[in-house]
UniProtKB/TrEMBL annotation:
Pfam families: CCG (PF02754). This is Fe-S oxidoreductase. One of its GO terms (molecular function) is oxidoreductase activity. Residues 4-83, 127-221 form the Cysteine-rich domain. The lineage of its organism: Bacteria, Pseudomonadati, Bacteroidota, Flavobacteriia, Flavobacteriales. InterPro entries: Cys_rich_dom (IPR004017). One of its GO terms (cellular component) is cytosol. It comes from the Bacteria.
Amino acid sequence: MKIGLFIPCYVDQFYPKVAIATYELLQKLGCEVHFPMGQTCCGQPMANSGYAHLTKGCDANFVSNFSGFDYIVCPSGSCVLHVKDHLHDEKQEDKATEIRNKVYELTEFITDILKVDHIDGNFPFRVGIHQSCHGQRGLKLSQMSELNAPFFSKPEQLLHNIKGLDLVSLSRKDECCGFGGTFCVTEEAVSVKMGKDRIKDHENHQVDYITGGDMSCLMHLEGILKRQNSRVKTIHIAEILNSAQN
């Protein structure tokens, strides 16, 4: 299974350990993983700001870098959803369509394509999981609490069998953290207040770590935690699952 590893630009620049953990984890799960060196931003920041018409260069570059793979896997639900919904290339629209149907968020790929329902390992900490909005409501990685329907969570499913990991049940498990891409720049006061509310829920449950599938949300929460001198840390789910495989 030939995998193209799609790493968001902010992960590449600020959290390379998440990219490395994703790469190593996929290899351990039996995938042939390739990292296209010419990849850049997928164009989501521009699209979120109302400038989707300026992303044509990003789109063409993405198609050029990720054509020919069996699947494209990314440790970020928001970037995956952007590609699924917005990737087009007027010169190679057939390839763009093929890529949109092959791109997966990491936990989605592990559970739905590799059919891995649990990962054995050890992570002896109390953990709260942040369900990012794009992953939950866009990619359907977990059930929304406002729906009268059976609960499921692909990220939680992968964490449940890890020894020592105490996964807490939050009071408001799928509330937005307030990051929202460019929203945190244009509406910083609202964004910070929402982030503080999410952190308070985790702190009330005495977690050691906040984990999730979107490092953008975790980056937002991490900034608030550091300013509050909190003992709580953030960690991407790929880092937990990869350490469990060591």
